[in-house]
Amino acid sequence: MSIEYPTPKWFQNLYYNYIAGNYHQFIFYNNVFDEFFWPSPSVWNQNKKIGQAGELYPFREFIVRTLFILNYKKVFFYTPTNGLNIFSPESDSFYPRGVFTESDNNFQDYDSIKNLGEIVSKIVKNNMPINSQLIVQSGIDNLIFLEHILTKKWLTKDNEPIKTAVIVDFSENIVPENRHFNERILRWGLDREIYNNGNISILITEDIQNLSPQLRSDDLGSSPIPIPFPDPEYRQIFFEHSLQTLPETSLGQLLSNPDQLKRVVQSTRGFQIKDCRIIENISKAESEEVGSGQTGVTDYMLDGHAGDIHYLIDKEKRNVIQAASKGMLEPVSSNITFDSIGGLEGAKEYFKKVGGYLRDMIDRKESENSIPKAILMAGPPGTGKTLMAKAMARESGISLVKMGDIRSQWVGESEKNLTNTLALLKAMAPVIVFIDEIDQAVGSRSSGSGDSGVNARIFGKILEFMGDNDNRGDVVWIAATNRADFLDDAMLRRFDQIIPVLLPGSAPEWNSIIEGISNQIGLRIVSTDREKFVSQNIHKLTKNHSGSTMETILRNAAQDAVDNKLERVTCEGLNAAFKRIKTNFNQNMYVQQTLLSLCACNDISMIPVPDASYSYGQKDLDEAVKKMFDELTNTPLYNHLNTIRGGRSSSF
């Protein structure tokens, strides 16, 4: 099977914009530490000295090589730490590794450029004080030299033009927050003489937010080009390449099955190519160990799961996601199903339906229009909100990640980490993102004292991402809160569905919850004993208990059965454990949280109607909910809330 290696779309973006004369300065950002295949001969004219079709090159080396394909004769690659590398098509290496000296009379001044180490050494050698201004000035001097390279029309001895390119790596670190740096780089993008001379400048940064707003705006001469994570088609090319080059390894044997190839491609969502290489390398090492009769290294790396590629991928996925998101995203595995969750029938039916749309979307793209961008579950603690997200992920087969507290995790690096994390979520699509206690995790549009507006900008970025219709079906946000009233109005509007997840209010719900928890913890209770227990205690259960307290009761009853050498938990055992429980259940708090959740709900079919078989635990609360159904407004709920608070609008 012949593999067609495509030209990366980001390079096509540069090529066509440059050829059209739109830009001569480009900024590459995001996935700038990955590797890329050199395109097939049918795509590019081949010069094997410059690049071999199907060979993987690190991003920076790929850029240098492609510039020679575009007939650039000199590439000046500068970083503030390593200084300058000068490359030509005749160079022995195209990978920037430090100061690379090359004899060329046309560029004999190149050694005037200094790297950071040389600058500091000179300062120390001459017993000069280490003054940051000296380092800043040296950085500016280096930029002046690079500008000289760009603005001059270089000619050979025969007066043939020499097209030159300047690449500035880690551009955010050259002269951070210095206006001279920004002005000079801006001038490069606006100077048409640079384009007329056939020259080009490229900036590389992992996060474009670290550059000035003027520099990253395409209205002022620079064209920002994001480097995306590899899509499924590109990852499939990688694994097809692995099948050809490593057919005898456990990975190669697995990939020879088309269904398994498809599964591997899907399960590596969010992987960079260099991450996929890790899977390939471990499989190769395992094969070599088996062939030589040695064991140990791969046994350790595979935790005893020799030859199990899917186990290896799942293990690596956790590392990949946590590293790429700086620990902000945590992959969540789940064995929870909707059948194991008691009660909440309306919510379960809705989540089942959404999960079905997500499954269908793989084969029917039009299904994405039925998928909500975001779902909010509101209600008191211990009512099963987290379980609902896990069950949807399990039954839909979609990856689930949990997002942590943005404000506490992203001090200093906040916006950079957020940009990387949102790009990672796009690469993992389709993916479900769960945010617990979103009212505390995300913040609001108001900046905190002394945060220089960081909190508001982070909040704005998340709002923009959640509200983007292009992300519908790719990233599904599921959030949980006990206090929907703490959420910013703009955030609430991002949720297509706001579902109240409340305490059980009927005997069937309590029976279902006890059955579900029993199945989860492996507890055997005969249905007649369970139903008898619920019937005897239904008033107390609906008034003072939640699913989480019921789990404590069941575990205590199970321990009693073991201590008394009983084969199963009986109704008497349940009652004995129930009588001992002293719940810290704050009824006033739960009632207020229930009212606030009902007020936030935007679909009345999700709200249980109080009647002879269902109660919210208090007669006055039941009456307020009935009035809400009669009037179809929140007024009765707010009136009851104010009564409970004694006319105060403060929190509890």
Structural class: alpha/beta
Radius of gyration: 31 Å
- The strand order across the widest sheet is 5-4-8-9-1-10
Parts with pLDDT < 50 across at least 5 consecutive residues: 98-117, 128-132
The helix content is: 40-55%
Topology of this protein?
Layout (H helix, E strand, L loop, with lengths): L8 H11 L5 E6 L4 E3 L18 E3 H11 L4 E6 L3 E5 L28 H10 L6 H20 L2 E2 L5 E2 L1 E5 L10 H12 L1 H5 L3 E5 L17 E6 L4 H14 L4 H6 L2 H10 L5 H20 L4 H5 L7 H16 L4 E4 L12 H17 L12 E5 L6 H12 L2 E5 L2 H4 L4 H14 L3 E5 L2 H4 L12 H14 L7 E7 L7 H4 L4 E4 L6 H15 L5 H18 L2 H17 L7 H10 L6 H14 L18 H13 L3 H10 L8
Parallel strand pairs: 1-9, 1-10, 4-8, 8-9, 12-15, 12-16, 13-14, 14-15
Antiparallel strand pairs: 2-3, 4-5, 6-7, 11-13
Helix pairs in contact: 4-5, 7-9, 10-12, 13-14, 16-18, 20-21, 20-22, 21-23, 22-23, 24-26, 25-26
Describe this structure in words.
It is a single chain. This protein folds into 5 domains: 9-227, no CATH class; 232-324, no CATH class; 331-500, 3-Layer(aba) Sandwich (Rossmann fold); 507-580, Helicase, Ruva Protein, domain 3; 587-644, no CATH class. It has 26 helices and 16 strands. It has 652 residues and is an alpha/beta fold. The model is unreliable at 98-117 and 128-132 (pLDDT under 50). The strands form 4 sheets. A 6-stranded mixed beta sheet has the order 5-4-8-9-1-10, with helices on both faces. It is elongated.
Question: Could you list some keywords that capture this structure?
Answer:
six-stranded mixed β-sheet; elongated; 11% strand; single chain; Rossmann fold; 16 strands; 5 domains; alpha/beta; 652 residues
